[in-house]
């Protein structure tokens, strides 16, 4: 276990998980959670050593995400959005912006979130119009997490004239250009402070622009995010399996083995984008089964407010839909609507054998 992974395990088991029920009940993540992640260097998790990060391999960093997600999904989801800003600053040709913000972003002194879902939809819901010295951004971003927690948003908008997606950093607070903020009430992850934003002539100055790229290339670049999002699901699976092992070790062992195999297959397929949607879907489907198994093992007590099984089961729903893409959604529906695998249930398999 690497030093970062050991630190993540300690944070998850000693701080995040013990507080997860209260975060779920109140819909509030203590700022001390984010301060801890910053102090441990997790805000620079995906950054190379020369930029102040730990220089971990991508798959090693994903294990850290898994571990933290198994502690508190809301905390981890908000924190995970920050890495989009770090990666954008690492890759941007805007050297002045990188020089100004990369180091504090890696240290977690400046914290960020993402607002790109408006350009994923077809047709894009957020538009960028060229103005002197920058861009005017208008439209609806349906899902923005970390509102009131993060300092900056990485906003993406579509320029209909050029076909490009323009992305850049804006302040994450009410002000000119933020026409409406609609808080969303979620069945799980309420502590993510997720809102819908209506933008109207929001000014994105040239000096704040991170990238301008063809929309097809922009969407293709989101494919790797399927693996990152799957780390959230695998983290919930791990927590469910650990709790399940106390009452049903055989079932826990089977789910753990399936989780390990799926993770290995996903990591092997990282260079093959066409395989990723099916694997992303399989991760969330496995999480749903693992968390449901924990509810079954817990019996009636698992339905009581505050019981970890019911919370994890609701959080499994979160991983089914968050950052989903049409290809992932289609694969998930195939898995969920397909015939049951009776071989997983020995008693039913035996009945089938007598027919």
What do we call the CATH topology of the largest domain? Butyryl-CoA Dehydrogenase, subunit A, domain 3
**Class computed from helices, strands and strand pairing:** alpha+beta
Strands of the widest sheet, in order across it, are: 1-4-5-8
Mean pLDDT: 93
Q: What is the CA-atom radius of gyration, in angstroms?
A: 21 Å
What is the ordering of alpha helices and beta strands? HHHHHEHEEEEEEEHHHHHHH
CATH structural class of the largest domain: Mainly Alpha
CATH architecture level-2 label of the largest domain: Up-down Bundle
Give the low-confidence spans: 345-355
- Considering the protein shown, what is the CATH homologous superfamily of the largest domain? Butyryl-CoA Dehydrogenase, subunit A, domain 3
Sum up the overall morphology in one term: globular
Task: Output the keywords.
8 strands; Butyryl-CoA Dehydrogenase, subunit A, domain 2; single chain; 4-stranded mixed β-sheet; Butyryl-CoA Dehydrogenase, subunit A, domain 3; 4-stranded antiparallel β-sheet; 13 helices; disordered C terminus; 355 residues; Butyryl-Coa Dehydrogenase, subunit A, domain 1; globular; 3 domains; alpha+beta
């Amino acid at each position: 276990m690497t030093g970062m992974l050991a630190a993540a395990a300690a944070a998850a088991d000693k701080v995040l998980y013990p507080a997860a029920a209260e975060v779920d009940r109140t819909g509030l993540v203590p700022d001390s959670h984010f301060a801890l992640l910053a102090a441990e260097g997790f805000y620079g998790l995906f950054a190379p050593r020369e930029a102040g990060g730990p220089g971990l391999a991508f798959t090693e960093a994903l294990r850290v995400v898994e571990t933290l997600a198994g502690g508190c999904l809301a905390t981890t989801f908000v924190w995970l959005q920050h890495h989009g800003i770090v990666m954008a600053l690492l890759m941007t040709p805007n050297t002045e912006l990188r020089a100004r913000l990369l180091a504090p972003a890696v240290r977690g002194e400046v914290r960020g979130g993402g607002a790109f879902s408006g350009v994923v939809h077809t047709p894009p819901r957020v538009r960028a119009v060229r103005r002197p010295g920058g861009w005017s951004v208008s439209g609806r971003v349906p899902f923005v997490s970390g509102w009131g927690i993060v300092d900056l948003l990485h906003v993406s908008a579509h320029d209909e004239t050029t076909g490009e997606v323009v992305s850049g950093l804006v302040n994450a607070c009410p002000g000119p250009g933020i026409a409406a903020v609609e808080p969303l009430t979620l069945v799980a992850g309420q502590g993510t402070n997720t809102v819908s934003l209506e933008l109207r002539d929001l000014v994105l100055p040239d000096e704040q622009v991170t990238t301008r790229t063809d929309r097809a290339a922009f969407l293709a670049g989101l494919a790797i995010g399927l693996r990152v999002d799957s780390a959230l699901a695998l983290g919930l699976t791990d927590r469910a399996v650990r709790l399940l092992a106390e009452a049903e070790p055989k079932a826990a062992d089977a789910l753990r083995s399936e989780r390990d195999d799926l993770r290995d297959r996903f990591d092997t397929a990282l260079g093959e984008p066409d395989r990723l949607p099916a694997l992303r879907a399989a991760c969330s489907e496995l999480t749903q089964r693992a968390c449901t198994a924990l509810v079954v093992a817990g019996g009636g007590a698992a339905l009581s407010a505050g019981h970890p099984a019911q919370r994890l089961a609701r959080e499994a729903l979160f991983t089914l839909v968050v950052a989903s893409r049409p290809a992932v959604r289609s694969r998930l529906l195939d898995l969920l609507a397909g015939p049951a695998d009776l071989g997983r249930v020995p008693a039913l398999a035996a009945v089938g054998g007598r027919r």
